[in-house]
Amino acid sequence: MFEDAAPVDVALAPSVEEFAERYVRPERPVIVRGAVKDWPPSYKWTPEYLKAMYGTRILEIGVSTNGDYLDYAERLKIGVEPKIAFAKVVDSIFAPANADEKCRVHQQPLHTWGALNEESPPIRYVLRKFITKNIWMGSTGNVTKTHYDTEDNINIQLLGRKEIILFPSTQLDELYPRSAWDYMSNFSRVEIEKPDLSRYPLFNRATPFRAILEPGDFIYIPIYWWHQFRTLEASLNVNFWWQARVDQALRRHGLHYWPRMARDRYLHRTIWRTVVDSVSSFVAR
Ligand SMILES: O=C(O)CCC(=O)C(=O)O
């Protein structure tokens, strides 16, 4: 689907200055190819290596019969995800006995993963202090539905392939975010592959972009750009979200995200982090 969508720009190992100037400053997405060859996870993190390092670690995973994890955050909150040894997850994703059983390791912060954390320092294109570095792993056919994040994102493809559909951050109304009180308030109500235009007529004027991520590529997803990820081949990714500036945090999308953050007691941490980071970047100038 979306084969006719506009392609996301592609850059071949640009300099950091060029990346910052052409893409990050104007908040324009780009796929960067060939820029992480020397980054240890690119040449070290095979399924066998990961199993040998952390195979016995027990973690919570998402499971799905159709690749759709729409209520995943809700399920995590009420603690109903299976707990399983990492080696088993790696096998069921990269060497599945039954292709209909899908699972994923969703946004696991890497700072608790000792050696893997040390082997994955921020790549040079991570331009500001990063908030989290996560590992993602998932079966062919998984889909993370359309949503936006409140930070700039660099998502690095280590194994497998993913399709990403993006919509500009300016199209907040066209994508109909869920209620500000919803646990997934940053998710769109529109099923972008079969939109109900009678309920969501403005989606008609939304303008999709499409990108395919291959091993060794990363995608820069600017703050508030909508994105859907589809796993085309069993995948391993690492992403970095870095701190938004105060003026970015105060945009409509950020404000829409805050009510549920306040209710779930994350807001004060976000405000504090944003202020501290803005003051320290100002002082460092
Ligand atoms: O890989 C995925 O399924 C989702 C990744 C994502 O949403 C992100 O990096 O912001």
From TrEMBL:
Top-rank taxon, per record: Bacteria
Name of the protein this chain belongs to: Cupin-like domain-containing protein
Domain JmjC: 107-257
Entries under Pfam families matching the protein: Cupin_8
InterPro entries with a match to the protein in the record: Cupin_8 (IPR041667), JmjC_dom (IPR003347)
Family matches, as SUPFAM superfamilies: Clavaminate synthase-like (SSF51197)
SMART domains: JmjC
Gene3D superfamilies in alphabetical order: Cupin
Natural source organism: Alloacidobacterium dinghuense
